[in-house]
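Reading group handout, session on sequence-to-structure problems. Before we discuss, look at one worked example. The prompt was deliberately terse, the way you'd type it at a terminal:

> structure Fatty acid desaturase

The input record follows.
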Amino acid sequence: MSTVIDSPTRESDPTKADSPKSPSLDQHPNHGDAKTGDVAIPQMETDATGMAKPDHGKPTAQERRRRDNLSLYALGWLGLAHIGCLFAPMTFTWAGLFTLIGLHWLTGSLGICLGYHRLLTHTGMKTHNWVRYLFGGIGSLAGEGSPLDWVADHRKHHAHSDQEGDPHSPHDGGWWSHVFWLAFHTHDGDRKDYLNHWVPDLMRDRGMRILDKMFLPMNLALGAGLFGIGYAFGGLSLATSLFIWGFCLRLVLVLHATWLVNSASHIWGYKNYETADDSRNNWIVAIFAYGEGWHNNHHAYPRMAKHGHKWWEFDMTWMMIVLLKKLGLVWDVVDYKNAAEKRARAAAQADKAA
Ligand SMILES: [Zn+2]
Ligand SMILES: [Zn+2]
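And the output record:
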C-alpha cells in the first residue's frame, strides 16, 4: 500500500472551475487551454440575468428510486444480456471465446475507456472528427448506452462524487453503485434538458446525435452479424456460440468491468492523492477495466489521459493512446497534471531544442 499522499495542485490551471458543485470545466469538454482559446469552452447554463445557474445535483438517488421512474428499456436490455449468459456453458467453442476476448478489448478498452471516457467525457486529447465518431461508435457496441447518456452521467458523477446527486455512489449502497442505479432514469423526467446541461458539446454535434439514435440498431446488427457469420461457417451451433459468447457474455463482462470502477474503486484500494471523494486505486479493477481502476489518480486529475501515475500502475488504455499519438491520430494529449507542469515541460522541451 502506498503511503504517498499528494494534494492535487489546481491553483494555476486555467481550466479549473471554482465550484466543485458545478459541472466543473476540469470535467467538462473542450475547454483545452483557456489562455490560448484553441478549444471552445462550453458555457455554463445561465439564467435570465446571465448568472450561472446553480446545479443542485437533482435528482438525487433517493428521488430516483420510484417505481414510475424505472427504466424498462435499461432493465430489459441488461436483463436479456444476463439471461443469455446462462447458455454460455452449453455453447462453448474456441471461436466463441476468441471472439469474446477480441470484442471485449475492442468495445471495453477502445470504446468505453478511451472513447467514451478519456476522449468524449474528459477531452483528454484532440483528434479528427471521424476518429471521435469511430470511437463513439465502438463505445456504443459495449451496450452501456449512447455516448450522450454515458458522458452526461459520468460528468455528473465527477461534479458530485460521493455527494448528493452522484448517479452511482456507494454511499447509497454498494449494489446500487454497481448496477441498481441503472434501473432508474438519471434525469428528472426531461432527458433533453438533462443532456443539454451536461453534454452541450455533444448535443450540438450532429454525428453524436445520430450515434444516440443508432445505439440499439447498431448493437442488434452486431448480434445478428455474429449469428450470421457463425451460421455461414459452422451452422447453428457456431451461430449460437458466437452470439452467446461474442455478444451476451462479452457484453456482460464489459458491463461489470465498467461497473466495478463505479463500485469497487470507490470502496476498496489506496489513494495517491487526497481528494474530496472516496475514489481509490484498485489494481484488480485496473486489470479488468484496462487501466480505469487507477480511479483515485483519475479523480485527482480528471483530464489527464494517463491514469497510471506510478511506474507500476499499468494502464493498457494509455498504451493505445501512445500508439494513436505516434500514428498522428490524436494530439495535444493531456499527460500533465496542471498548467504549471505543462508550462515547465514546454520550457524544458524548448531548451532541448535550442
Ligand atoms: Zn469515480
Ligand atoms: Zn472520469
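Points for discussion. First: The longest strand covers residues 126-127. Second: Residues 117, 121-122, 154, 158, 298, 302 surround zinc ion (ligand 2) (CB under 6 Å).
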